[in-house]
Amino acid sequence: MTISESPSSKPSSISSLENIEVGQVLKMHVQDTTPPKEKRFIVIGFSPDETLLATVYINSNINERINWSAEQQALQVEFNSDGRNYLNKKSYIDCSKLTERKTEDIGSVIDSNPEAIIGYLSEADYERIAEAIRSAPTIKGKYKKKYGLYD
Questions:
Q1: How many domains, the chain?
Q2: Dihedral (CA of 22, 98, 79, 87) sign
Q3: pLDDT range class, residue 16, cuts 50, 70, 90
């Protein structure tokens, strides 16, 4: 079972955005990287009012200029591409930072380009990522709670 099959993984009050799910892997152009570019990222959770969602980036390599400490590198969760159709090669999930996005913005991109959805995490993969985020000292507890990573 994937995360997308979980009944609580979709925003319930925003019917036009029903295509966005926790554990979904998306590929779209983003403005919050230098330079702005097409990136893969994972939906981690929704805010209580479902107007925002939290995502984490998938990177091809660990950027050692940014993630120079052992603590930071431990928050880069390695995934092989085997059995993960959304990856072309070994990649790293950056669990050191949550990126907040407007649910409506992501929904609009998916509505106009359904191919932006490139896959879904397995429950085991989601739990690996969630556990790394929960343990991350770089993310404040209020954000972890806001996006459902703990009560």
A1: 1
A2: positive
A3: very low
pLDDT in tens, 63-108: 766 656 778 888 999 999 999 999 999 999 999 999 999 999 999 9
- List the structure tokens of 62: 């660990």
Cα–Cα distance for residue pair 99/32, rounded to 1 Å:
9
Complete DSSP assignment for 91-118: EEEETT--EEEEHHHHHHHHHH-GGGEE
**Parent domain of 127:** 3-7+18-146
Strand ranges (E), the chain: 24-30, 37-46, 52-59, 76-79, 91-94, 99-102, 117-120
Residue 63 domain-assigned?
yes
> Is 62 within a domain?
yes
Quick one: tokens of 147? 């996006």
Percent of the chain whose predicted confidence (pLDDT) is above 70: 85
Q: What is the CATH number of the domain that holds 129?
A: 2.30.30.110
